[in-house]
Amino acid sequence: MSGDSAASAPGRSGARAGRPVGRKRRYLAGGLLHGGVQGSPVLRLFMRWVRRPLLPVIRLWRRNLQLKVVVTTLLMSLGVVLLLGFVVIGQVRNGLLDAKVKASQSQATGGFAAAKQRADEAATAAGDAGTPVDDRPSQNVIQWMSDLVYSLSSGGQGAFDVVTLPAGGDSGGGRGPRASGDVAPSASIPESLRERVDSSTAAAQSYTRIVYNSSEASQPALVIGKRVNDPNGDPYQLYYLFPLTQEEKSLSLVKGTLATAGLFVVVLFGAIAWLVVRQVVTPVRMAAGVAERLSAGRLQERMKVTGEDDIARLGEAFNKMAQNLQLKISQLEDLSRMQRRFVSDVSHELRTPLTTVRMAADVIHEAREDFDPVTARSAELLADQLDRFESLLADLLEISRFDAGAAALEAEPIDLREVVRRVVTGAEPLAERKGTRIRVTGDQQPVVAEADARRVERILRNLVVNAVEHGEGKDVVVKLAAAGGAVAVAVRDYGVGLKPGEAARVFSRFWRADPARARTTGGTGLGLSIALEDARLHGGWLQAWGEPGGGSQFRLTLPRTADEPLRGSPIPLEPADSRGRRTAEGTAPPSGGARAATVPAQQSAGPGQARPARDPIPPRPAAAPPAADPTALPGNGARVVPRPVSPARRQDGPSAAEPPAAHGDGHPAGGPEEDPNSQGEACRGR
Amino acid sequence: MMSFMKGRVLVVDDDSALAEMLGIVLRGEGFEPSFVADGDKALAAFREAKPDLVLLDLMLPGRDGIEVCRLIRAESGVPIVMLTAKSDTVDVVVGLESGADDYIVKPFKPKELVARIRARLRRSEEPAPEQLAIGDLVIDVAGHSVKRDGQSIALTPLEFDLLVALARKPWQVFTREVLLEQVWGYRHAADTRLVNVHVQRLRSKVEKDPEKPEIVVTVRGVGYKAGPS
Amino acid sequence: MAADREGGRRRVPVRAVAYAVCGAVLLAGCASMPDSGDLRGVESTPRQDTQVRVFAMPPAENAPPAEIVQGFLEALTSDDPHFETAREYLTDKARRSWRPELSTTVLADGPGTDPGRVGDREDADAYSLTLTGTKVATVDAQQSYAPAEGEYRAPVHLTRDGKTGQWRIDTVPQGVVMGKSDFQRNYMSVNKYYFAAHHAPGAGDGASGQPMAVADPVYVRKRVDPLTQAVRSLLSGPTRLLGPAVRTSFPPGTALAKGASSLTPDDRNRLTVELNGRAARTGPDTCDEMAAQLLFTLRTLTPAVDEVDLRSGETRLCSLTEDRAAAVAARGSAQHPDYLYFVDGEERVVRLPAGGSATRADPVPGALGSGEAKLRSVAVSRDEHDAAGVGLDGASLYVAPLVSGAALGERVLASRGPTEAERLSTPSWDAQGDLWVVDRDPAHPRLLMLEDGAGRPVTVRTPGLEGRVQDVRVAADGVRIALVVRAEDGQRSLLIGRIEREAKSGERPAVTVRGLRSATPGLEEVTAMSWSGDSRLVVVGRERGGVQQIGYVQVDGSTPEPQAPAALTGVQEIAASEDERLPLVAHSEDGIVRLPSGTQWQKVTDGTAPVYPG
Fold it and tell me: Can you tell me the distance from the alpha carbon of B102 to that of B119, in angstroms, rounded to the nearest whole number?
């Protein structure tokens, strides 16, 4: 709906005016609802700010298959390597720990036994000394215990440390903790283990982290503790702390090894993926490039094929396809050339005798006064019909040229006002005869477009002459406008108008609004068809609108530059003074479906009352998506459209108001251009 | 209308019926037609007849009309009007480029033909002595000569007329239609390609660099004008 | 074309194979254990400290009195720098009066508790007991160690705090008490160095004018900043035993500057010592001496100190490196004897290069080496210019220079002892070149000193000495003297004393040995001894009821180093050098044997009376 042509200005401006209001209201509502008025816009700004630098990356990601595959491979292999690493490290860790735990346990068990033995020995010695039992107890324990710790710990230099703690918390028996190797005892022994050792006589173990009093860094350790009795029989806790330094070193070695290997593996996978994808993508990119060049018309382009692999087969198939394509195209070109040649030859062969006949007839006609009345009249008739024959022949040849695709556009910037002026001047004599006044509006500004002046003039002459002929002596208005990328000329008459459905058919070859009507005018019946082809050749639109009794309007829309696609027209197809419009202001719209026929019709427009419904706002030329209807596409419309039209007409016969929906005729006339279908229907020019 | 104006017209056409008919019409209008039906003999006939104007059918046995046109143009600036059954772009443009001054599409009315012939012959009336300048060119209208730095440039009468038309009103931009009317004598607008082709031909003769014209300047979307003197 | 391509194709695999082989070789190199190359030094990783530490615990809530006492005693063995935790076991009053630094009592087995009187024990708010044990030694307030004997009993009284209801120690013996092994764990011996007081310029070894450093061992707590403790102790002056014989270069009253807390050498092993104002005006020479004292003292401590920087206030007094310190002051252990001397089978003096592994001894130049006089024992002066020999019968003492062709000369001393064993002992030279010898004549036992090894012998007074001197060795510093004394009961013990000389002008110097103290209370019979360091001797002796053994002993009587030299039987004489790097040499049943460090005893040759100079 991004229609941009100035034609939509009235409606559009309304819509535009409305939109900001709506947005503001939404903001307000959101702000109130979320309590933070600032939140959402700030967030959005932030998101935009974040996304902006990422956009090229995202675009690259979307466009680059190689990047995608390599990154995916890298991520996946990274994942696998990480998983593998975790598993292996976990197993190694468990293995190391198991061995360590077993060795430590036997060491500690031996130590506990030794401590018990020493206590027993000391107790025995004390007993032997014969000192009273209740005096003796506390005598030696302070030194004894220090000695014990020293001797136990000196058994394994650095392999473990020994700690004693008082049983039952820090206060047990006034005994202080002892530790070898600078270990901070209370910080290194977990509280839970102390409780466990207190509560049972069995040894218990736990993992902990040894904290040192010196500046040495703490390290993980296995601690095994047991409650042992001192010579006095008082319990104390004896702990063996086995630092897991070696195990940690081994583990970090394994970790380092795995990380290195993993890195290499990931890099390897990435490189492999890169290579493989490169081997696949390169030919694909080449194929894409070649296909692009083929589509640009360089049919001799081929892929380079080496080897016999799948890629090579793809290349061969591709090349075969291109070759067949080229063959077919050149065949078609040959055919087309032949036809053109034929037409050209026919025209020459026909024209030369015709010229002779013509001249002879003229000579005879000049001399008719000397003839008897019958012969004189015959001479007149001969001359007249020769004229008609001639123009018919010319038109036929023109049409056949279009059909053969031989028509070439010679576009250059022209001022349409000039063309219109010439056409109007040329039509002046006819208009005078008909009593019609031709008015030109919108010619204050230059209306310049890149166009083939000859063809445009032919179109406009056709339209103006048609309008004058069917205008029943009323005014004919030629309106020019330019806006956006388009220029338009609309020719408006107030004659009989178009019946429903006729708007689509006026461009059919040899079509006449009223078959019964006498061929008073000398038209060949091909004029509008040729005009339509001319318009299409420009990439422009030629559309018709009409209402019965309300006159009709034909509108030619051309792109300002030759290659630019049209997106809208500066002039609404339905004139502002249509009856439908006029009634719309007051009347409620009847059901839309019935109005449709009016859209393109020239002579008999759709029922006026239909229109208002659709058009509270003046008709907006629609930004019709070109793809809406294949028949509406430029280039093929001419041949396709007439066919659907005729059945449509037949169908319409009974109910003129209900043209086939498929062609959009059934849509309310008010917005013909809003509906791609109707537009496609109406404007063959597309 | 100007029945006093006589002229020799060489009709090159292989269709004997048409040639005879043309002869009838031309004689009726007071011209002196002579005929040749074969392209190969056309040049010899031209030299012999020394016509004031050549009517040349494009489709000829032997040498085709384009070739004949080129040969004649190589020898003389005599006005050549092509008769063609093909109004297609290519044929017409090729004909014009090979030196034809004007063309007329079959079938045509005798009056139209006569009008064209007259228009081509009209310029033989004596013009008033006049000296014009366009760009660095000096035009002697009466002497029918164009000089740059004293060097004479050979132009066909039509090209000369075109140049003079532009040079007479150097301030004015001529639309193609106006030029058609003034130089070719068309009442109604016709094929503007005539103008385009002849402007190209003229430029190829008078411009120093035809790619960057200075004498005949294109005014985009309108037409042509004379370059500044 | 085809050939080219084929060639190229063949070349590519060849190259690839070459690369692959190179890679494989490289990888194979990585994949096997290296068997050569990569020569580099090995950094010794310090062995993990296996010292046991005791962590003092504050008293528990509602602990019974016995636990309080236990906790207090435990806290005394902890590393608590100022015994703050131990103080928590005391009542406020006792906390104020208790002075832990006053003394340290070392008990053989740690303090035991002897419950107090019954009456007190039943008192709900008071509790008495007695700490008991067997004294081994005491360390006084000067941190000087002294062997001790006897029973240790100290009363301890606890009261229950009226407010908190907690038991606290009310009466406590001053100082610290702990077991022997705890003491060894917590304390370390440090030699402070002073200078010999009597040293007169121009005398003997002091020809260069260098003062002679004297070691003064003290005990400091090993874990409580021993470096700072040692420095403070050094500044506070020599211990009582040594005091009169030494001087210190620090002006009286010198101490660490106020606010100087812990001394730590920087990363270039330089220690900056800030002194108070008393030291501000010392001259550069004195300052160098001060620094040398410091350096010598801190030499054995870790972290090592290579340089001392003395400051007073903002002034930098001086700076001394270890290298320069050797030029400032002489130290016995820093002198390196050239030869080991002994008497060979032909009763002449021969010598061996000291410290070498040679076994062929050469006779010394001069008369003593010529076999002119049959000798029993020998002593060589510390400068190795002169030697003194005792004749085979022990009755004559000869002194001769160790110069080729020098005549023997007259004997300088004669003994009239009735038996060979009761005549002259092995002489000993001191650092000044004076010769000391003992005449064991039962009728007239004397300790004699010959100034410069000649002249009339001076009888050295030994006030307070009981028993007869059997042997003498003068320390290299010339201040300490070691005597083997035979008591009336036949016990031979080692006594250490200090030499005091009163030089009155014109008169013969009066020399006295004072402060004699037993260094080996445990040994019953000391057979031989020799100085083996600034403050250490090696002693051959027998414990009561034991066998002969060799051991080291500190001059203060402590035996800080547990490791003794490898056992050797039948040692009659032993020789050690102050330079501890030289091997111990003994005369045993196997002749002359020596003990290079880290090995077993090796036989050198036959002979008797091995001595190092001194």
Answer: 10
Q: Where in chain B do CATH 3.40.50.2300 domains reside?
A: 8-122
- Tens of pLDDT, residue by residue over A10-43, are 334 433 443 444 444 444 444 444 444 455 778 8
Which residues share a beta bridge with C605? Answer: C592
Phi and psi based region of residue C283 (left: phi greater than 0; alpha: psi -120 to 50; beta: remaining): beta
Answer yes or no: do C458 and C479 share one domain. yes
Contact call for residues C279 and C293 (beta carbons, < 8 A): no
∠A273-A279-A281 over CA atoms, to 5°?
Answer: 90
**In the 3-class helix/strand/coil scheme, how is A180-233 assigned residue by residue?**
ECCECHHHHCCHHHHHHHHHCCCCEEEEEEECECCCCCCEEEEEEEEEEECCCC
Measured CA to CA, the distance from residue A610 to residue A666 in angstroms comes to 11
Nearest CA in chain A to C51: A180
Domain count for chain C, please give it: 3
C5, C30, C55: best to mutate for the A interface, most A CBs within 10 A: C55
A176, C57 Cβ separation under 8 angstroms: yes
CATH 1.10.287 fits A310-403, yes or no: yes
> What is the residue type of A329?
I
Q: Give CB contacts under 8 A, 24+ apart, made by A425-429.
A: A426/A461, A426/B188, A427/A461, A427/A464, A427/A465, A427/A468
Min Cα separation B108/chain A (Å): 6
> Is B177 in Cβ contact with A418 (below 8 Å)?
yes
Return all residues near A216 (Cβ < 8 A) that are at least 6 apart.
A182
Query: Is the per-residue pLDDT at C2 higher than 80?
Result: no
In order, the DSSP letters of C6-28 are HHHHHHHHHHHHHHHHHHHHHHH
- Whether residue A502 is predicted with pLDDT greater than 60 in this model: the reply is yes
Q: Is residue C162 part of a domain?
A: yes
Euclidean distance between CA atoms A350 and B107, whole angstroms = 9
- Chain A residues lying within 8 Å of B96, measured CB to CB: none
Report pLDDT digits (tens) over C21-57: 888 877 776 667 778 777 877 765 555 556 778 888 8
Which phi and psi (to 5°) does residue C153 adopt?
-135, 130
Instruction: pLDDT band for A514, please (50, 70, 90 cuts).
Output: low
Q: Supply the Cα-derived Rg of chain C in whole angstroms.
A: 31
Residue pair B36/B12 in contact by the 8 Å Cβ criterion: yes
What is the domain range of residue C462? 337-611
Residue A4 has pLDDT above 60, yes or no: no
Contact C498, C548 (CB under 8 A): no
Distance CA A64, CA A52 (A): 19
Q: What is the CATH number of domain A412-514+525-682?
A: 3.30.565.10
CATH placement of domain B131-226: 1.10.10.10
Query: What are the pLDDT digits (tens) for A160-174?
Result: 888 888 887 655 556
What pLDDT does C116 receive? 61
Q: What does the pLDDT look like over B103-154, one tens digit per residue?
A: 888 888 888 888 888 888 876 555 666 788 887 888 888 878 888 888 888 8
Question: Chain A closest CA to C72's CA: distance in Å?
Answer: 8
Indicate if the pLDDT at residue C198 is higher than 80: no
Task: Please give the residue that has the higher pLDDT: either C138 or A314.
Answer: C138
**Contact yes or no for C231/C273 (Cβ under 8 A):** yes
pLDDT: is A174 or A624 the higher one? A174
Q: Are residues C155 and C269 in the same domain?
A: no
Residue C14 is assigned to a structural domain of this protein: no
In the 3-class helix/strand/coil scheme, how is C355-371 assigned residue by residue?
CCCCCCCEECCCHHHHC
Task: Specify the CATH number of the domain B8-122.
Answer: 3.40.50.2300
A246 touches chain C (CB under 8 A): no
Topology given in CATH for the domain delimited by A40-294: Beta-Lactamase (3.30.450)
